[in-house]
Amino acid sequence: MPHGAVLDELGDRYRIVAYDHRNHGESGSIDNGARVASPAQDLAELLDHLGVEKARLLANSLGCSVLWSYVDPHGTDRVSSLVLVDQPSLCALTRG
């Protein structure tokens, strides 16, 4: 099911906020390189800006790493659930 169809289905029951990470989709680019911590901080600022106290967060692929990078410094106080789709393997993220 394409992403848009998933959002349409969920939109009947939830307030949906979908955004592009920097350097992705229709978002602007940054000159100094991308780090996973940057979109994680952007997520924290977006939740603040929208006044979201609790969120159900859904991510796909690289977005899964962004959510883990959000949770690491910010904790789960504002997170009621995490949905991780097609998360990269931990084996691919670590050297052994």
TrEMBL record:
Domain AB hydrolase-1: 6-88
Keywords: Hydrolase
Domain of life: Bacteria
Signal peptide: none
Molecular function per GO: hydrolase activity
PANTHER family named in the record: HYDROLASE ALPHA/BETA FOLD FAMILY, PEROXISOMAL MEMBRANE PROTEIN LPX1
Protein name according to UniProt: Alpha/beta hydrolase fold
Organism field: Pseudonocardia oroxyli
